[in-house]
Design a protein that fits this description.
Layout (H helix, E strand, L loop, with lengths): L1 E5 L7 H15 L4 E5 L5 H13 L3 H25 L7 H17 L5 H8 L1 H16 L4 E4 L18 H17 L3 E5 L2 E3 L5 E3 L4 H13 L3 E6 L4 E2 L11 E2 L1 E3 H9 L11 H4 L4 E6 L8 E4 L5
Parallel strand pairs: 1-2, 1-7, 2-4, 3-4, 7-11, 10-12
Antiparallel strand pairs: 5-6, 8-9, 11-12
Helix pairs in contact: 1-3, 1-6, 2-3, 2-5, 3-4, 4-6, 7-8
Length: about 300
């Protein structure tokens, strides 16, 4: 089994979503895979702005931003359906998600950290329906799964931590039967839920953490973090022309880089998999033929 996570820039438009679906389809021919997705590029920031407007009682601005976000997603949805004449139509589920989000921001009165987590979780809820639909249109059986039904967390909103035993039970109950039936779960990254069902997030970049949590509780062979770079570099290659590509690095080194501000990994992403020595790969979504960077215990540098 492999856990494969796709970042927001990999899901920026209909063409990229179908590219991602093709990558998944190729892997799924020979292996069991669980997909973890981020929100589309820029969507989490837009949801944060909606939250801030409603919190500041700038309702008119919030309504406009919410409508713009609705139109943005429906434009991509129409492209998804136009490009492929597959069996999937997800306009009803998309409309339902936006109706739920609109009702929440309209009638909620306490815009604290709990409300923040609930609102920003809609980016991943929406993107998972798109990726599952694209897979279905390519002839792959897939189903969106909200992580709040699987990942059980503490109630530290904005920086939650997973409760492993409860999450393992839920993952085995919800996800394993799907894999046995040949269904690819398209799992929402970034958030989970408390024992009493309240949405919690792991902080920005938290979809990496979601992927490694699943790898831990389901004893996956490896995790592949699909990003928009060829792997891990010694520095940001966009800012430093002498940055070196790192073919492999240790868990320790990767964790240090993440905690020092490198944007390759969520700072806690490696915690769930180190004890089980699960290999993590960082690969380029748009150049899948490249090996990428291997993060494991075998290299001590």
């Amino acid at each position: 089994m492999k856990i494969m996570k796709f970042g927001g820039a990999s899901l920026a438009d209909a063409q990229k979503i179908y590219h991602v679906a093709g990558v998944i389809k190729n892997f799924a021919r020979e292996e069991k895979v669980i997909i973890v997705v981020s929100a589309f590029l820029g969507v989490t920031d837009r949801l944060i702005s909606i939250y801030q407007n409603y919190k500041a009682n700038q309702i008119e601005n919030g309504v406009k931003e919410l409508q713009d976000l609705h139109d943005f997603h429906f434009d991509i949805a129409r492209e998804i359906q136009k490009n492929k004449n597959g069996p999937c139509s997800f306009f009803d589920s998309l409309s339902q998600l936006f109706a739920q989000l609109t009702a929440y921001v309209t009638f909620h009165r306490d815009y604290g950290k709990e409300a923040f987590d609930h609102i920003v979780s809609y980016g991943e809820r929406i993107s998972s329906t798109f990726v599952a639909c694209a897979l279905q249109n390519l002839g792959v059986t897939a189903k969106p799964i909200e992580s709040s039904k699987v990942i059980v967390t503490t109630d530290k909103f904005g920086d939650a931590r997973v409760l492993i035993p409860q999450t393992r039970n839920q993952a085995e109950r919800v996800l394993l039967p799907m894999l046995i039936q040949g269904i690819i779960p398209v799992f929402t990254g970034y958030f989970g839920a408390t024992l009493d069902g309240r949405i919690t997030t792991f902080g920005r970049g938290g979809s990496d953490y979601s992927a490694t949590i699943l790898a831990h509780v389901l004893d996956a062979q490896e995790v592949i973090l699909w990003k928009e770079v060829d792997g891990v570099f010694s520095a940001d290659p966009k800012k430093n022309g002498s940055a070196r590509f790192l073919a492999e690095i240790s868990y320790k080194k990767a964790a240090e880089m993440a905690k020092n501000g490198a944007k390759v990994l969520h700072p806690q992403a490696l915690e769930p998999i180190i004890d089980k020595k699960i290999v993590v790969w960082v690969k380029n979504t748009f150049r899948p033929e490249l090996a990428g960077t291997k993060i494991w215990q075998g290299n001590k540098t």
